[in-house]
Amino acid sequence: MTSVSAEPRWLEPDEMRAWRAYVIASELLRQQLNRELQEKHGLALPDYEVLVRLSEREGWQMRMSQLAGQLASSKSRLSHQISRLEKAGFVRRLNCAEDARGVVAELTPKGMDMLRTAAPVHVQGVREHLVDLMSPAEQEVVAGLFERVIEHLDLT
Amino acid sequence: MTSVSAEPRWLEPDEMRAWRAYVIASELLRQQLNRELQEKHGLALPDYEVLVRLSEREGWQMRMSQLAGQLASSKSRLSHQISRLEKAGFVRRLNCAEDARGVVAELTPKGMDMLRTAAPVHVQGVREHLVDLMSPAEQEVVAGLFERVIEHLDLT
User: Fold this and answer.
1) Which of A54, A55, A101, B27 has a Cα at 20 to 30 A from A45?
2) Quick one: which of B55, B42, B62 has its CA closest to B116?
3) Which positions in chain B touch A127 (Cβ < 8 Å)?
4) How far away is chain A from the Cα of B154, in angstroms, using its nearest Cα?
5) What HEC string does B71-85 produce?
6) pTM exceeds cut of 0.90
7) For position A2, what pLDDT does the model report?
8) Taking a C-beta distance cutoff of 8 angstroms, is the pair B129, A5 a contact?
9) Is A42:A121 a contact under the CB 8 Å cutoff?
10) Which residues does chain B have within 8 Å of residue A149's beta carbon, measured at their own beta carbons?
């Protein structure tokens, strides 16, 4: 019997319980955080995440390719998203001075204002719906496990 | 100072580490599992999840409202999704015999065939990219934590 035709290793009950809980909870959490930002600030969660990443950088700038990597987004999806954020006046696109191929996204002062306004709502949601539900020991497990997942998926 | 104007409780470094790892890993994982199903079976991950839920039920049927709850989906989003799955021949919609308001989604034999074909690919991805990266102790933490999150979010 080759490994291709072999019966897959189906999940054991304990594995299934962990996987199901994780999958449902992540979807509920994503929707809840998105809803809170949309209702209070008209901002989608993925857009909020773009503003955060740019705000953390020197000069509020980042190469589009690097930003796509950090957000686990495809280049074409990010490009559409940045176009929307440009129209809203939160971000602008520049050509990279050192590299003719590179395009850089830059947070505008208006984008920074939006981020400062929206951040307290978002962090309150993140606390209320996840972080404050974790013990310090659980935090440590979550950090270690998901860093391992990131390392594994970045290499595949 | 009222609680409304109070400075939000920003995340501490350990909390931020856990949150960041979780957010990035979930997004990478969702994309990877979706890509694998799309490439090998032309099926999106949320569609796969609909087929799974129906297949687990007596008569392969479930009320649309109940299905929406189990998938953490809105009724309108699920309705669009079921329309696509109906066109593909994987699902059909029926009126509920006991309840004039209820609409029921039913898995077709063609849908069950698709599920049987796609399931080994999906379970292999779930194992490789998450489950096999967890120790039994981590599984227990993940199950307990995310069940708590589900309970919390179902009530908000």
Assistant:
1) A101
2) B55
3) 9, 11
4) 8
5) CCCCHHHHHHHHHHH
6) no
7) 42
8) no
9) no
10) 21, 25, 28-29, 129-130, 133
Contact with chain B for residue A39, Cβ under 8 A? no
Which tokens is A64 given? 């589009």
SS3 B42: coil
Taking the CA of residue B142 and the nearest CA in chain A, the distance in Å comes to 6
Q: State how far the alpha carbon of B32 is from the alpha carbons of A77, A111, A130, B26, in Å.
A: 15, 31, 24, 10
Q: Contact A150/B24, CB-based, under 8 Å?
A: yes
Contact status, residue B75 vs residue B68, Cβ threshold 8 Å: yes
Instruction: Report the C-alpha gap between B129 and B50 in whole angstroms.
Output: 21
Given an 8 Å threshold on Cβ–Cβ distance, is A25 in contact with B139?
A: no
Put simply, the answer to whether B149 touches A130 (Cβ < 8 Å) is yes
**B75 in contact with A, Cβ within 8 Å:** no
* Contact between A23 and B144 (Cβ < 8 Å): no
Does A75 touch chain B if contact means CB atoms closer than 8 Å? no
| Segment A50-91, tens digit of pLDDT | 999 999 999 999 999 889 887 777 788 889 999 999 999 999
* Max CA separation in chain B (angstroms): 63
Question: What is the crossing angle of helices B136-155 and A13-41, to 10°?
Answer: 40
ipTM above 0.85, yes or no: no
Which H or E run contains A63? strand A61-63
Residue tagged 């995340």 (tokens): B11
Separation in Å, CA of B98 to nearest CA in chain A: 29
* A51 burial via Cβ count (<10 Å: 0-12, 13-18, 19+): buried
